[in-house]
Specification:
Helices cover 72% and strands 3% of the residues. By secondary structure, it is mostly helical. It has one domain.
């Protein structure tokens, strides 16, 4: 029993070490360009976003790994057990932007109260980060949320992604577009996304509308807040 407890505690420490180590690596990488205070704040905002996914997955009984950070790419959590229906996928997908938005808004109010341009800049970065993730294309969070409305909505995210690539030529945007191709093609299949059975998408019309309202409302809020902060800083 003692050996088992030691192994379990070691596994937990190992997960924490991976998250903490990759966070520190990302902070160090961002600090080379933006300085330590901004880098630490930005990585913490990403952490809040990923913890939204993590907590939602845990709440739905999914086996999920701790967040892992990749400098200049972001972070991800590994779902060792995939959602069994589109509503669970949408729930886990929207939880990241929701918690990430709360963290960014907290930065905004703290920046206003303390008259801190650093906190306002972090708030803007956090808002834009979550807004970007809501682009309706898989594998972004917006694609996971849009799937509960209709997988064909992913095609609406493609011109947005390509437009952003034309503006700043980021290799990351090109990578996302490449990863999105199988999802886009699968949206025309009768058996659903990536071979998922038709019942995967069986949800009530009212539930589709609920997620559509949440999705549009959160996107609009982030867009307005981002615009206002852009004017301020």
């Amino acid at each position: 029993m003692k050996i088992l407890l030691l192994l379990l505690s070691g596994a937990k420490l190992g997960k924490a070490a991976v998250t903490g180590g990759t966070m520190l690596l990302s902070i160090g990488a961002y600090a080379l360009l933006f300085g330590w205070p901004y880098a630490a704040g930005f990585v913490l905002l990403i952490f809040c976003h990923e913890m939204g996914h993590f907590l939602a997955a845990k709440q739905r009984g999914l086996d999920v790994g701790a967040p892992t950070f990749i400098p200049f790419v972001g972070a991800w959590i590994q779902l060792k057990k995939q959602p069994m229906d589109v509503e669970t996928e949408a729930y886990v997908g929207i939880a990241g932007p929701v918690l990430g938005t709360i963290a960014a808004v907290a930065c905004y109010y703290a920046g206003e109260i303390l008259h801190s341009r650093l906190l306002l800049a972090l708030a803007y970065a956090g808002l834009m980060l979550n807004l970007f993730n809501l682009i309706p294309i898989s594998p972004l969070d917006g694609g996971r949320i849009a799937a509960i409305i209709s997988p064909k909505l992913w095609w609406g995210g493609l011109p947005i992604l390509l437009g952003l690539f034309v503006i700043n030529q980021s290799p990351m945007l090109l990578l996302i577009a490449v990863l999105a191709i199988p999802h886009l093609l699968s949206s025309f299949k009768q058996d659903g996304e990536n071979g998922k059975p038709p019942q995967y998408y069986d949800v009530s019309t009212s539930l589709r509308w609920n997620y559509a309202i949440y999705y549009i409302g959160l996107t609009a809020f982030l867009a307005v807040m981002s615009y206002q902060l852009h004017q301020m800083i």
